[in-house]
Every structure is written in structure tokens, then in C-alpha cells.
Amino acid sequence: MSQSTSSTDSSTPAGLSMDEQLALLRRLRSDILIAYRPHIQEGAGPIRVMARIVAELEQACREHAISDELIRAEVVNRTIGDIDLRQVVECEGEPGGPWDYRMLADELGIALPGEQLHGYTATGETYLWLREQMQTCERHLLSQGFDPRVYDIYGIGNPVLRGWLAGEMGRWGIEVTHRNIHLSLGAMDGIDNVLRGLAHLARTQKKESIAILFPEPGFGVPEWQALSYGYHIYRYSTAAENHFKLTGEQLDQILTERQDISVLYLTITNNPTAFAYTPEELNDLHAVLRRYREHGRKVFILADLAYIGTGKPEEDQARMATFTQPDVLKHTIFVSSFSKTYTLTGERLGWVTCGDPDIAAGISVSWSNGLAALPGEWQLRFMAYYRLFQERPLLAEKLRRFYRLRRTQLLAQLRSIDEQFHLFDQIYIDDDATVYNWSKLKEGVDAFALFEKTGIAGVPGTGFGYDDAYIRFSIGVIPIIPKEIL
Q: Which end of the chain is more exposed for a tag (fewer CB within 10 A), N or C?
């Protein structure tokens, strides 16, 4: 949070001194929080409400001719998890070296040729390379008898790309073929299609109802999706002493009490907490589900892998190895994307992997009756990006290092803020993965109070099915830089 500057500082065109601008900004911030507080749980939910508060406050500040410098210091958006590569300013080592993160937008094909990126001029090489690859991929598809420009009666994407993604799963030890893979417009679309498809299968099997278990805190969108398809929703609040993870003992008790649960939604590396399941914890869950299957009850794991790839490779490998057992794999549906692992949120490049190809066939109705056919140009771009990551594997390591740098800086910032304002009960250290921090606030403090006092906007715990004693911050939209903690 910035300090007041001298009233002799230069004034804006509206005639306000910097002190007057600062006072006005803080009054606008207080007013908008008062207006929104009663509505935090309405509409799209707390994440988007908090993001909307930030956007509307920034707009109001500009309408009042408040300087951009003050806005940046006093309105800090830590709500949405997307990384804006065009805003990256960090560089470790020599400029232009391997850990110059300003180059990521260029290296990932986001930056246009000649675009200026905080002192770095993009070559646009990857931007153009991707387009050349799209043409190459289209010619390859045509040679295989698949035309992405015409109607695809199955609606699940071309078999060549699906085969490549089967190979991608193979690096985790998940042995499948293209028949197990369906493309999706990002992870959320994949989850939506899976939930709709499983509900369809339940109806064809004459089941009276279908229920799903959501450990919380957790990503909330799948709950809304499941409700829209008629699922009975069960929520379970996990405990801080277990790092907010579901234990095998807890799962056993829940399944005993709730006989209709047939799907467990599980984020292997968690949003919002940034804690990840260990292999031992996953094996405990698998053992419980195995016992129930032996007695004729099937419970599928809907495994959200959005952040697998953002952590230490050897630890991610060990987590994924627990799913390779044939009986576990057969009852698991994985949802993956390049959104967080490669910062390509806007591209919407995702896929679904069913351990059982029969389940993959059964839920494919969601694709054919939803999208009818996946966009051809999008599939070609997906293929081009897949080739990029195969050709330049160091990009993944660079992004992991970049995430680690920002998480470390955010932890330091939160500790500095706490020394000044005493707002936190506990600032959690993550499992070296994801793009978030999850921390506990002191009694009487919530996300609104923290935003009003510090200018930093996070998402309250209620946005993830928990309570407002907790808050999630993102390292994504903007950098963590010293001026935010002045």
C-alpha cells in the first residue's frame, strides 16, 4: 500500500493534488465495497464478483482523472488466476538470457512481431511459426482422410491430435489410445461434458438419481455444472490439519453414509489451497474405492489435472503413478488443459481422458449433442501448440521457475503487509505448484476489509465452498513488485 505524497506534487488535469487523488481513490474503494458486500454470493459467485469490483473501481478512478501510478499502487488485482504474459516484467540473470521471463510472451507465440514488452522487443518468431505449423498439420490431417473444415459426426475432435494427447498421458504412465481421448474447449468445457455424459449414462441405466462428492475448499464451477444436470450435491469441508485434503478415512465414512454417491470430484493439485495430494494420500483414497468396488459399488474419480505440470516434475510423476493400477485407471476420468501449465488460458486447449474406453464412448453424446463439431481452426492451433511443446520442452521448466518466483515474492509481500497491518492468522506455504496462495485471516478480517486497508483484492473462502476466514490470492494477472508493499 502506498504512502501519501506531498501536496506540492503535480496535479492532474482535474486539478487534484496527489494527496487529494489518494483520498478520493480510497473513498471510491470504500463506497464500492459497501455497495457490493451484500451481493458477494450472487450471480457468478465471489471470484467474478471480486474481479468485477476491481474492474469497476479502476474505471471509476480513471473517470475521476486519478493517476495511473496511484491506481496501480492502490488497486491490486489478485483475483483471477490467468497469467497475462504481456505484463511480465521479471528477469532473473542477464536480460535476454534463459530466465528472462519478459520473453515468455514471444516464446509462447502470444506477442506480435515487433511488439514492445517492458524493454524487450518481440521477434514474433513463434507467432509466425505456429501459423506455419497449422498449415502443416492441416495437410497431415487431409492425408489421413480427416478434413477439419467439414462436419465431424462424432464431435470429439480429430483422431491424430487425440492420439498425440494419448501419448502425452503416456508420459505420466497412463496407457491409453485415441479412443480414450476427447478434445474440449478448456478444462471447464471438459468437466461440463463429462458430468452431462455421466448423467446420461445413469439415466440409460435406470438410476433414480446420481450424486457427486465435492471436497472443499475447491474449484466451484463444477458444482454449478453438476447442479444443472440434476446431480445431488454432497460437500465435505476438509480440515486445515490435513492441508485441506480429503483423507481415506473421511471418504470411507462419507460413502457409508451417502449410498448414492457415484462420482468424486478431485483436484489433484488444489485450487484454491495450492496444496497437492501425496502419493500416499491418493493411494489411501484408491484403497477405499477399491473396497467398495469389490462389493459391487462403482465410484468414479473425476480427476482435475489443471495444475499437474506446474509443480516439481518428479512429485507430479509420483502422484500420477497411483492412477496407473488397472482397476483405478478404469474408474478414473482425467481432465487436462494447457491453460495453467502453459499460461494459454485464452486458447482453451483441453482434453478428457477416460481410463475405460467404453465410458469414453458412452459420454461422447455430450460432445455430439452439444458442440456438434469442434472448430477446425481451433484444432489446428491446438496441434501447432502441441508440436511447440514437444520441440521446446524447456518452456515448461521456465514457466515452473516463473511461477515459483512469483509465489515466493507474494509470500514475502504478504508477510510484509502482516507486519504492518496484522491481518493474517496464518500465511500458508504451498506445495510449490499452482498460481495461488491460500491464507487464513485474523478474526474480524475478511477479503473486503483486507482490500480496503491494503488495496489488494483476493477471493474470499466462500468462493470455494469454505468460509471467509480464508482468502485466495493469485500471482497471475499482474506482477508482484516492491511498490505494491510500500
A: C
